[in-house]
Specification:
Blueprint (H helix, E strand, L loop, with lengths): L7 H30 L6 E2 L1 H17 L6 H4 L4 E7 L5 H9 L17 H7 L5 E8 L5 E8 L9 H5 L6
Parallel strand pairs: 1-3
Antiparallel strand pairs: 2-4, 3-4
Protein name: Golgi-associated plant pathogenesis-related protein 1
Pfam family, one: CAP
Organism: Gallus gallus (Chicken)
Amino acid sequence: MSTRKLTASNYYDSAIKNSSKQFAEEVLKAHNDYRKKHGVPPLKLCKKLNRGAQQYAEELAASRILKHSSESASGKCGENLAWASYDQPGKDVADRWYSEIKNYSFQNPGFSSGTGHFTAMVWKSTKKMGVGKASASDGSTFVVARYDPAGNVVNPGYYEENVLPPRK
């Protein structure tokens, strides 16, 4: 039997891990609820993507500048970012991203800066995601979602194949 001494630091680390796991699962559930509406397969959380997303959320919180990572710019992963002046619940973040559906034209599919969060969320061929959240010194929070394989691929026909209209 292990007799690991429970210190305040261990307890704090454990509480942080549990809250970030709970947050990631909340964001995942919201994604999968929306994906179901569009008739696309659910995503699974990936530990490696979670680690990368968390690390990047911490970098964003430290710099307090919201900008996409070099990993996303190079196409290694898809990425959605969110910032709020308060501690944002996971469902609220996903709801804000998904609300871009109102600006998306299923009749004229393709990339637009006003719909990229939505299309990344429901991209049919994406299988896995990771989520990270970090607080800045001013109490604001930065959220990073990473997707694999990345969506928002602008090749001809890709939007038609991957961004399906919601089912009635």
